[in-house]
Amino acid sequence: MRIAVTTGLLRIPPTYFVTQHAERLIVSGDHEARAFARASDVQDARLGIDVVTAVAETAGSWRTRALRAVAAARPQRRAIESYQPDLVHQHFATWAHGALDAARRLDAPFVTTVHGYDVLTAGAPSAAPVGLFHRSSVDRVKREATRVLAVSDFLRDRAERAGFDPSRLVRHYQGVDTDFFTPGVETDRSDEPIVLFVGALEPRKGVLDLVAASIGLRARGVTHRLAIVGDGSQRTLVDAAATEHDHIVLTGPLDRHGVRDLMRSAEVFVLPTQRDGSWREAAGLVLLEAQACGTPTVTYASGGAPEMVRDTSTGFVVPERDATRLGEAIGTVLALSPAERRKWRERARAWVVGKRSLASSTAELLEHYRTVAG
User: Fold this and answer.
1) Cys-Cys with 196: which of 13, 266, 355, 361 at CB 3.0–4.6 Å?
2) Confidence band of 58 (pLDDT split at 50, 70, 90)
């Protein structure tokens, strides 16, 4: 099968999830795939799929290229048509016009994976030009997609409420690469327990709740370091906390190898994701990545995040915006005996390998492809 993987704006890192299934299918030797983006910024030379971009990477800054991408549906459509795929798989219901036009002209099945923003925010009524642009794309996907895949049960339910046809709407967990995200050796672990956060330093990710919980734990004599990986509008506030509390370390963004190294060495990974306007966490793959490395996780009961953790078995799910309960859950993990910790780590790894791996997700996706392709 020849598959066109399509999207609007492709930046790698961090959005490996757009191409990872196709890369697996290419490696199998039984399928072909190529990615088609309106604009791209690929900084990982090890990416295992060719990317065809409508707006050249020499066309200015990323912001400039993203703006030009608005008018790039036609060149994207032509590029997809020239590839002659058996199936078109669009990631995000936004930016879909070029891919939809190509699929229609080729009479090819059109599969869309919705990831959250496209359902929760971009599909809402808006009078702003960018809102109208995205809404028109989402509305076409609702009408024309052969199948729509939602990355969690939470998002599937929200998509149905937003007007997606339930008969063409299916939950498909994305999965993570359990061959890449693996536990380290015991010597990788720090003498001082590490509490880890990886994500955007934005209100929706709740990093300030974690900072408050961490400071509270230290005040009660719970020794640990808080490692924060990422960047965003709240960086200044996190920097100020790190200046005042020397157990807090802000690394800035890291590549996936650097993230994996920290996940392997951490005692617990924390994602205090929370509602921000109409936005909710659709899934939270970073929780799965941490567990694949054998690291227990703590998250808020928000959006699809609870579906990424086995509560009280591989981690804890606590009430949203409750920094006190967040701190208590972190403290529980830090207080585990070596034998208990080993069991938690083994369970976390086994659950992701068995239920949320990229390998099983790719096999499931291939069945969707075969079904819609006839």
Assistant:
1) 266
2) confident
pTM above the 0.90 mark?
A: yes
Q: Do β-strands 268-271 and 194-198 pair in parallel, antiparallel, or remain unpaired?
A: parallel
Report which of 254, 260, 291 is spatially closest to residue 180, judged by C-alpha positions: 260
Beta carbons of 284 and 272 less than 8 angstroms apart: no
CA distance 259 to 235: 18
Q: Which amino acid makes up residue 269? A: F
Please write the tens of the pLDDT for every residue from 144-186: 999 999 999 999 999 999 999 999 999 999 999 999 999 998 7
Helix (H) or strand (E) holding 113: strand 110-114
Residues paired with residue 316 on neighbouring β-strands, in sequence order: 298
Write down the pLDDT at residue 285: 97
Domain 186-355 has CATH 3.40.50.2000: yes
User: Is CATH 3.30.2350.10 what the domain over 2-175+357-373 is classified as, yes or no?
Assistant: no
* Domain ranges (residues) in the chain: 2-175+357-373, 186-355
Q: Three-state DSSP class for 249?
A: strand
- Tell me the C-alpha distance between 201 and 229, whole Å: 9
By the 8 A CB rule, do 33 and 26 touch? yes
pLDDT score for 11:
93
Cα angle 160-1-289, degrees, rounded to a multiple of 5: 55
CA 8 to chain centroid, in Å, comes to 16
| 244 vs 56: CA distance, rounded Å | 45
Determine what percent of the chain is predicted with pLDDT higher than 90.
87
Instruction: Give the number of residues written for the chain.
Output: 374
pLDDT tens per residue across span 335-358: 999 999 999 999 999 999 999 999
